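Q: What structure does this chain adopt?
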Amino acid sequence: MSSDRPVFVVGCPRSGTTLLSLMIHAHPRLAMPPETRFLTRLWRKRATFGDLTTRKQRRRLARSCTRGSRLAHLGLDRVTTRRAILAAPATLGSAFGTVFAEFARTQGKARWGDKRPLYYQEVDVLLRLFPDAQIVHCVRDPRATVASLKRMPWWPFDSIGAMATWSHAECCLRRNRRRLPADAYHVVRYESLVADPRRELTDLCEFLEEDFDDAMLEPARVRHVVPESKTWHANLGSDVSTARVEAWRSQLEPWEIGLIELVLRRKMARWGYRPSGAGRVPGPVRLGRYVAAALARHVSTRRRWAEEDRDAARSTQPVAARLTTRQQELARRP
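A:
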């Protein structure tokens, strides 16, 4: 049982996506690189690359894919990677996928993927670039997620912004699960993953059409894939544990617990997260700030999705990758 479809790990930031991607990377056939963040940035600039059937434009795209520090954490040689992109089929997806395929090659792996939490709102883009992609969405208790985001030096919002982001990610999860086939979208609950990793990873491997491997139970062995500069991932060097599942109880203010359990109660119930009753009823100002933050995310994303759909309808340039077996089959269809 094996496949060559690309794998993308998504979810609200601080929901366990890095742990899950390391578990996947520990599999002998699967390669999950550290976050590169170039894919959606270059996708937004796709019009600047023009006709990729010309070598000049493909060379320009290859330079953009390998510019600056984009390959630093992947350990790839810039010249070798550019040559591989130039030799790949003339589509954006093929160019982007070649970067990940090169990483997989250097790791001795047969299959590649990518992890970025905020891909949760970019699933349509991923499927345009990689129509055979398999998406794995990690969901975590919003109280734990918000408590973790509060401590992150890179998080640009306050705890109310974190709540709105979790809500947005959960809305996108439900949208994607409704419309995508079962072999394309899979949800992993963080608390279940750390409580019984063997069972959850066995289910995941069945989804990925791979045989489960015990190496996946020891993600700390591949901890080196995560750059040392990302000190907030220090816990990944330890054994998988449930120790931090309830840590939010001492890390959140009573009003934060109360607000989360008020505005997210239905979403929490869908995933088995029960109210603690330990919070304080939030005042109208904080409640209003949450509503505004949640609405802003919803409106902005819907507007972007509509623009993407219009652009896709107008475009005559093929963008889908033609690297894997299924991608090549889809490209041959009339």
